[in-house]
From TrEMBL:
Record keyword Secreted present: no
Official protein name in the record: Orotidine 5'-phosphate decarboxylase
Pathway: Pyrimidine metabolism; UMP biosynthesis via de novo pathway; UMP from orotate: step 2/2
Enzyme Commission number(s): 4.1.1.23
Catalytic activity from the UniProt record: orotidine 5'-phosphate + H(+) = UMP + CO2
Classification via InterPro entries: Aldolase_TIM, OMPdecase, OMPdecase_AS, OMPdecase_bac, OMPdeCOase_dom, RibuloseP-bd_barrel
Domain Orotidine 5'-phosphate decarboxylase: 4-224
GO cellular component: a single term: cytosol
Subunit composition and interactions: Homodimer.
Length: 230
């Protein structure tokens, strides 16, 4: 069965990332390439992972005017990635343009939108003049995302149960801020364990540092996959 684990490859170079990925097979996990690695290693590195058979989530959180985001989504889709994302705060016109830009492809990537970053709590939202609790804001942005025809959202696992009720089972929930028991929370605030996330209905968990900074990453991956298969 295909893994529900997405490993965040937050490495500073292609070499460091490849040292890590060469231990993995595509069935172990999907791989996420975000800002750090993409800026360092570029689209060729993404193509290399795709050619090796990995399902790649290109996490560049596009957030710009509709025309720019639509073009960026097309370029990203041409890399053969499995999933890509935009920022829901770009608004409905931007999300609609993004969706339209890849709709005609033979095998379009899944397109999802970031709601409220998992590093943010209510106090951080208040500083942005958002007075709602994180769930209220996530719920609002998820509704907007779904109305634009996207495949799902990035949110915290803490919001998963209510979001599944709101949006239905087919709407994908992709959740960073996942921490196995005993690991550090780092800069994440809205966190849950892999097992709790899966029990609440999350489709895919994103895990970076607890795996990539572990001395025994393969053991951590195996334990998380077991939890997700429960
Ligand atoms: O709300 C969000 C959106 C994206 N991320 C990304 O996920 C990983 C998490 O890494 P950890 O080391 O497990 O904290 C990272 O690449 C973020 O850019 C997120 O954390 N929250």
């Amino acid at each position: 069965m295909s893994s529900r684990l997405i490993i965040a490859l937050d490495f500073a170079s292609a070499e460091l990332a490849l040292n890590f990925t060469q231990q993995l097979a595509p069935q172990d996990a999907k791989l996420k390439v975000g800002f750090e690695l993409f800026v360092a290693a570029g689209p060729d590195f993404v193509r290399k992972l795709v050619d090796q058979g990995f399902e790649v989530f290109l996490d560049l959180k596009f957030h710009d005017i509709p025309n720019t985001v639509a073009a960026a989504c097309q370029s990203a889709a041409k890399l053969g990635v499995w999933m890509l994302n935009v920022h829901a705060l770009g608004g409905d016109k931007m999300m609609l343009a993004a969706r339209e830009s890849i709709a005609g492809l033979v095998k379009p990537p899944k397109l999802i939108a970031v709601t409220v970053l998992t590093s943010m709590d209510q106090a951080q939202l208040a500083k942005l003049n958002i007075s709602q609790a994180p769930f209220e804001q996530v719920s609002h942005l998820a509704a907007l995302t779904q109305a634009c025809g996207l495949d799902g959202v990035v949110c915290s696992a803490q919001e998963a149960q209510q979001l599944k009720q709101q949006c239905g089972g087919e709407f994908l929930l992709v959740t960073p801020g996942i921490r196995p028991l005993g690991s550090q929370s780092d800069d994440q605030t809205r966190i849950l364990t892999p097992l709790a996330a899966r029990q609440l209905g999350v489709d895919y968990v994103v895990v970076g540092r607890p795996i990539t900074q572990s001395k025994t990453p393969l053991a951590v991956i195996k334990a998380i996959n077991q939890d997700l298969a429960e």
